[in-house]
Structures are given as structure tokens and as C-alpha cells.
Specification:
Elements (H helix, E strand, L loop, with lengths): L1 H22 L4 H17 L14 E4 L3 E5 L9 E6 L4 E7 L9 E7 L2 E7 L1 H4 L3 H18 L4 H7 L11 H4 L7 H20 L2 H17 L2 H31 L4 H4 L7 H18 L2 H4 L3 H16 L22
Parallel strand pairs: 1-6
Antiparallel strand pairs: 1-2, 2-4, 3-4, 5-6
Length: about 325
């Protein structure tokens, strides 16, 4: 009887090991995309943002059964080290899917042991093609640079916008007056002025933009104004950075043969054009009530484009002047 029990336990353990090994297998296409994202980040270095290369690109890939962790200095004990991956140039850690993160996550926060971590689902779950998934990974990697800048979290606290929420969800759920008629009207005028300034780049267009900013700010409460500034600074500039990544890759980077062979691959040239056009398209939709916080992405990206035209040195103090881009704006 004892021998039978031992044999049964052995079979059970062997079966569990087999299942574990299967779950811990990183899908080949995911490996190709991760390799592309990490290599693109390494080659970009500090050419877009000074100091970006010093920001750890810690990433958690969430799949239906598994979670894979990369570039993490000190994972929690529930992760098993699968060893060093020569292609990805990092130790790969694994744990079964904990159910704590949605399969369609595209987010950055201190998710694993206090480390700012990009948490992403696979392309099919996030409605991204492989190329846009890689570019989005670098969008989130830019958030890691923002979050790790000196004094960031204290400055966020000083905004006094959390309403007692310590989870950080207030950044998404702050009750901005998205559906208030006079705010919609002023924001619509502001979006139109942004688009006109980008397209015309004329003194009159810049003056009209200044006026639209002033009108919008005058009808917002002090707190609502701070929240808008914060979103333009954080999410808007991250969206702008996406376009810079695509343009840099178009001009300086050769995708791997494996990446270019993926069935949903699009060229970085096409992505650069699409992402730039998308900014103007979103501005023209005038959908503050429908899009909510996402409306700040295009507006902030447009503000960053205009800063490139008006004040080419603005990036040097961008992180210091959080949470506002206004300090860099040249008044006309």
C-alpha cells in the first residue's frame, strides 16, 4: 500500500511538473516582440530623452495562464527564476496568472515589489498589432522615466487631487467636468486652436491658441485646472513620445527578420505616419464628453509638438517643471 501511495504521488508530481513546464513556456511570438521592444529601447538610448537609458525597462507580460517578468532587480518570492535569456538579455521570471491583472492591461505602476513595472497583455488581448504593441511598450517605458524622476511622487501628492485615495486610481477617476457644456465648448475651441497652430505655425494661430488656453483655464476650478495640467504633462507627452519612437525607428532602426515576419507587422514608417495623423484626428473629433481623460492625450501631444517649434530646449527641464507644460510655452 505504501509503495502504491508513493508511486501515485510520484505520478502526480510528474504531471504537475509537466503542466508547470508548459505554462512557463514563453510563446515564440511574444519573445520576438519583447526582443524588439528591448532592443529598440537600447538603441534609442538618450537620443529622444536625456537619461531615458538609465530607466529600468521592467515589464510583466500577462497571458491567460502565466505571468512573465523581465528586467526586475528583486521579484517577489512567488516568481520562479527561469534563468538568463541570451536574446532578451535578462533573467526571466515566471508565476501562474494570479488574476490580479487584466489580460488587456497597458499600464505602468509599482506592480511588483515596489518596482515601477510596465504591465501588458498580449497583442490580441490589447487590440494592438505587433508593431503598435512594441511602440506602446515604449510609451509605458516613458512613464517609468516620469515616475522615477526625483520628487515625482511628492509633486503628485502636492497636487492635492487624490481625495484620500492612496491607490493612485484617482489619476484615472478624478471627477473632471467632462460633460459640462461650457467646459466642452471651451475645450473644443482649445482643440481647434491646437490643430490650427500645428498646421499653420503662424503668429496669429499661436495667439489664438494662447487665448483659448486662457479661456479654458478661467472656467475651470483651481483643482480641475491642476488635473488638466497634470494629464497634459503626463499622458500627453507620453503619447507624443510614441510618435518620436516610431519616427526614430523609421529613420535609424532595422526590425529583426523575425519581427518583420510576424503576420500583423507594419513598418515603422507607416506607424509614424499613422500616429502623427491620429493626433490631429483626435483633436478634430471634439469628444471630451465621450473620451473623457483620453482627450488629454492628443491635446498634450499637440502641446509638446508646438514646444518643439517654439522652444527647442524644453525637454531639458520637462521633468523639473511637472506638472505643467505652461512654463515652457512661448507667449505671443
Amino acid at each position: 500500500m505504501i509503495l502504491k501511495i508513493r508511486f501515485a504521488l510520484l505520478v502526480l508530481l510528474m504531471g504537475s511538473s509537466t503542466i508547470y513546464a508548459q505554462e512557463a513556456h514563453l510563446d515564440p511570438a511574444d519573445r520576438v516582440r519583447l526582443k524588439e521592444a528591448f532592443e529598440l529601447s537600447r538603441q534609442i538610448g538618450d537620443s529622444i530623452w536625456e537619461g531615458w537609458s538609465q530607466t529600468p525597462f521592467t515589464l510583466l507580460l500577462v497571458t491567460e495562464k502565466s505571468e512573465f517578468l523581465f528586467n526586475h532587480p528583486n521579484p517577489t518570492k512567488d516568481f520562479q527564476n527561469l534563468g538568463y535569456d541570451e536574446e532578451l538579455r535578462t533573467n526571466v521570471y515566471y508565476r501562474p496568472n494570479t488574476g490580479g491583472f487584466s489580460l488587456n492591461f497597458l499600464a505602468t505602476f509599482p506592480a511588483i515589489n515596489g518596482q515601477n513595472t510596465v504591465v501588458m497583455g498580449q497583442p490580441h488581448a490589447t487590440n494592438k498589432s505587433s508593431t503598435y504593441w512594441v511602440i506602446t511598450a515604449l510609451h509605458e517605458h516613458f512613464h517609468q522615466m516620469q515616475f522615477s524622476s526625483p520628487g515625482y511622487w511628492q509633486k503628485v501628492t502636492d497636487l492635492d487631487l487624490s481625495g484620500g485615495d492612496t491607490s493612485g486610481m484617482w489619476m484615472l477617476n478624478y471627477p473632471f467636468p467632462y460633460e459640462t457644456a461650457h467646459v466642452i465648448k471651451a475645450f473644443t475651441t482649445y482643440e481647434s486652436a491646437l490643430a490650427a497652430a500645428i498646421q499653420k505655425q503662424e503668429r496669429q494661430a499661436f495667439q489664438e491658441l494662447d487665448e483659448s488656453r486662457s479661456v479654458l483655464r478661467s472656467i475651470l476650478s483651481e483643482k480641475d485646472g491642476r488635473y488638466q495640467d497634470f494629464q497634459l504633462w503626463q499622458e500627453g507627452v507620453a503619447r507624443y513620445t510614441e510618435t518620436l519612437v516610431a519616427k526614430w525607428a523609421r529613420d535609424h532602426f532595422s526590425p529583426s527578420e523575425e519581427f518583420a515576419a510576424l503576420p500583423d507587422y507594419v513598418s515603422y514608417s507607416e506607424a509614424a505616419t499613422t500616429l502623427s495623423e491620429f493626433i490631429l484626428e483626435q483633436l478634430s473629433q471634439h469628444a471630451l464628453a465621450r473620451n473623457g481623460r483620453v482627450a488629454f492625450y492628443a491635446a498634450g501631444a499637440a502641446e509638446a509638438y508646438l514646444l518643439d517649434i517654439q522652444n527647442s530646449s524644453w525637454k531639458g527641464t520637462y521633468l523639473d517643471d511637472m506638472p505643467s507644460l505652461e512654463a515652457h510655452t512661448v507667449k505671443r
